[in-house]
Amino acid sequence: MQGMTTTEPLQVSSGPAPAWDDTFWTSRLSGRARSMTASAIREILKITQQPDVISFAGGLPAPELFPMDAVKAAFDSVMTHYGPAALQYSTTEGHPPLREWIARQSGIPARNVQIMTGSQQGLDLLGKVLISEGDVVLVESPTYLGALQSFQPYLPRYVQVPTDNEGIDVDALEAVLKATPAKLLYAVPNFQNPTGRTLSLERRQRLVELTRRHGVTVIEDDPYGKLRFTGSELPSLYQLALEQAGGDPDRVHVIYSSSFSKTLVPGLRDAWVQAATPVIQKLIQAKQGADLHTPTLNQMLVSELLEDTLPRQIEIVKKVYGERAQHMLSQIAEHFPKGADYTTPEGGMFLWVTLPEGLNTVTLLSEAVERKVAYVPGSPFFALGGGENTLRLSYSSAAPEQIERGIKALGETFQAALG
């Protein structure tokens, strides 16, 4: 009868279950997922978790310099002032006081600032909203491998632009732009990751003019810009482009990305992108699909630290990193083989070593770890391959005694490989 239910058992096939196909899941991944690769740095960091390994691999801020007391005081202040609102959902665009402070630093409206959960999210979402399959993306040679990892799922076609001790070779860039209809240029002008090099002022000005003339969008990644320990501060590409655009941020072809991870603390994961309104609007939509918004409490904590703690913290970090960089350079000069070339950074967290031809830093890494020291091989930083005899070293989180022991061990590793 209608409305009645039955209690008849569900019929299940009694035949043997099909054999499991080991390709079941891999065959069901999207083409985008199959193009993803693991971060070489993150994989190396797993090796270096052993407490007796001296690691020059990860670009980790020095934990002993974190402003612990200031963060504790900021937490109490935020909870007292905001109460439950500090623990509530918030707007996708970001905490208004934080966006307004960032905007004031560049003289732009807050509507042109989007808060991100770490600058890596900013790169990923910029790739999502700007890159279509087959688009030509220009990158430095070498470039930050985290950017390559972020952009790769969107299937760009990379074209490498040569670099030297002044950063991007702008003459080479001009030749590339004349021959290639590029859509994007990704660059790290200040204390570049991985080389530590800084783009000169003359080249910055030419780069901004060239890319504007050729209709190329520039993504300027600047997480280290405030960590200058020698020389004079240079204007960002974004500042130069804003001047060219008569101060109108919606006519600026440069997108600027930065972070509080290297100047305050990395664990709060607060970063931002500033860009023209159409880009910001799409980033808002993309972020809504990614994580809705950056944690409210974290943004409020950073806002509490901006006026007093941040400038003091920057000065502390610059001094320590400058001393550690100089110490590492002196040890390299003493212990590395003849023919090894290395950069002399003016700030940031990294330097770059080019060993004599024939040495392979990927294969030598295991030998270095046996000597209880680790680095990042250079080849993952090249979008189209190469750099087998290069490596990146980070001095930011290594104490002087660790630098001495670690660089000596690396020198022994490389000397032994040369025979």
TrEMBL record:
Residues 67-410 form the Aminotransferase class I/classII large domain. PANTHER family: AMINOTRANSFERASE, KYNURENINE_ALPHA-AMINOADIPATE AMINOTRANSFERASE, MITOCHONDRIAL. One of its GO terms (molecular function) is pyridoxal phosphate binding. This is 2-aminoadipate aminotransferase. Keywords: Aminotransferase, Pyridoxal phosphate, Transferase. Homodimer. It holds the Pfam family Aminotran_1_2. Gene3D superfamilies: Aspartate Aminotransferase, domain 1 (3.90.1150.10), Type I PLP-dependent aspartate aminotransferase-like (Major domain) (3.40.640.10). Belongs to the class-I pyridoxal-phosphate-dependent aminotransferase family. Its cofactor is pyridoxal 5'-phosphate. It comes from Deinococcus irradiatisoli. InterPro entries: Aminotransferase_I/II_large (IPR004839), Class-I_PLP-dep_aminotransf (IPR050859), PyrdxlP-dep_Trfase (IPR015424), PyrdxlP-dep_Trfase_major (IPR015421), PyrdxlP-dep_Trfase_small (IPR015422). It comes from the Bacteria. One of its GO terms (biological process) is alpha-amino acid metabolic process.
